[in-house]
Amino acid sequence: MQKQDEFSRRRVGLAALSDAQLKERFWQLTEQVVQPLVELARTHTSPSVERSVLLRMGFSSIEANAIVDKCVEKELLSKGAGHAVWRLAQLENIAHREAGLRLAQGLGWDRLQAFWQKGGGARDRESR
Predict the structure, then answer these.
(1) Fewest 10 Å CB contacts: which of 18, 25, 79, 100?
(2) In terms of domains, do 87 and 25 share one?
């Protein structure tokens, strides 16, 4: 009986709404529920997520593991492993595959760290 009372109480505020208004209310509530998840995904990552990104960029599992391990070691995982590959490719004017292979070998990390420490990539922060 308690659930029926709760339903009746909540229904009062919704009964006067049109279908279009109900639909709009549904999407507003859905956005409220999903927003924390979107924010969490935007600001947090994990080694497995970053390996997955690198695999989709065409790197082998072994190459992806090496890049992600270096990202963790250099405390740059929050920047994103794929982002690190892309950024080094931009800085060095090389293909992303070559940049990733360099990172996997331990090369180029100093350049990335210097770039991000100087505040480089203001647009990078805005887009993440």
Answers:
(1) 18
(2) no
Structure tokens at 2: 């308690």
- Structural contact between residues 102 and 88, judged by C-beta atoms closer than 8 angstroms: yes
pLDDT in tens, 61-116: 999 999 999 999 999 998 999 999 999 999 999 999 999 999 999 999 999 999 99
- Helix H or strand E segment including 13: helix 2-15
Calpha distance 60→51 (Å, rounded): 10
Which of 42, 113, 41 is closest to 73 using CA atoms?
113
> For the chain, how are helix, strand and coil distributed in percent, rounded to 5?
80, 0, 20
Are 70 and 88 members of one domain?
Answer: yes
pLDDT, residue 1, reads: 61
User: For the whole model, what pTM was predicted?
Assistant: 0.65
Domain extent, residue 22, equals: 2-43
C-alpha 5: how far from chain center: 42
